[in-house]
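About this split. The held-out portion is used to measure sequence recovery: a designer receives only the structure tokens and must propose an amino acid at every position. Recovery is the fraction of positions where the proposal matches the reference. Here is one held-out target exactly as it appears in the evaluation file.
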């Protein structure tokens, strides 16, 4: 029990407000909503949060390669899945159904990075393994890539002239 308390009290204080923000954003994404599509293009910036983690890997070049290949695959997955959630798009506005993938992916990224920091502190020999140096960055890349494919799908979605006018 002591180690668990130490893990959570030893984490930087900014971690917990970040977790709360990610949960709130994920809950927001679970609701059907009309939105401007331009802010959707900020979603791929989540990938930038991976850079410090990738640079800290025992072989950063290998980590970036694994991450990049998985990122491309994640973009394809996000592109494919987003088609299920678009109700309509008209110009720079769209209506999307609620979905839980956003929350799941944000939690995956948050807790994977948390676990990586923990492993690096408690068992650095594990994070130095080649399998970890490929698998962990690939996991981050696959998850992060979904946030690129989704706005691309919205932009490429055919505009509908029969979509309701905003605020109607």
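Reference sequence for scoring:
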């Amino acid at each position: 029990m002591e180690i668990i308390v130490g893990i959570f009290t030893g984490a930087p204080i900014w971690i917990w407000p970040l977790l709360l923000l990610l949960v709130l954003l994920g809950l927001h994404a679970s609701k059907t909503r009309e939105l401007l599509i331009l802010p959707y293009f900020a979603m791929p910036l989540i990938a930038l949060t991976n850079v410090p983690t990738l640079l800290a890997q025992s072989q950063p070049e290998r980590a970036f390669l694994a991450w990049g290949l998985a990122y491309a695959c994640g973009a394809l997955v996000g592109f494919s899945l987003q088609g299920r959630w678009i109700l309509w798009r008209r110009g720079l506005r769209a209506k999307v159904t609620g979905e839980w993938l956003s929350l799941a992916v944000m939690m995956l990224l948050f807790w994977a990075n948390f676990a990586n920091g923990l492993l690096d502190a408690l068992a650095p020999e594990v994070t130095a393994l080649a399998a970890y140096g490929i698998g962990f960055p690939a996991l981050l890349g696959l998850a992060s890539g979904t946030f690129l494919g989704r706005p691309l799908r919205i932009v490429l979605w055919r505009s509908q002239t029969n979509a309701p006018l905003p605020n109607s």
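Annotator remark: Residues 2-156 form one domain.
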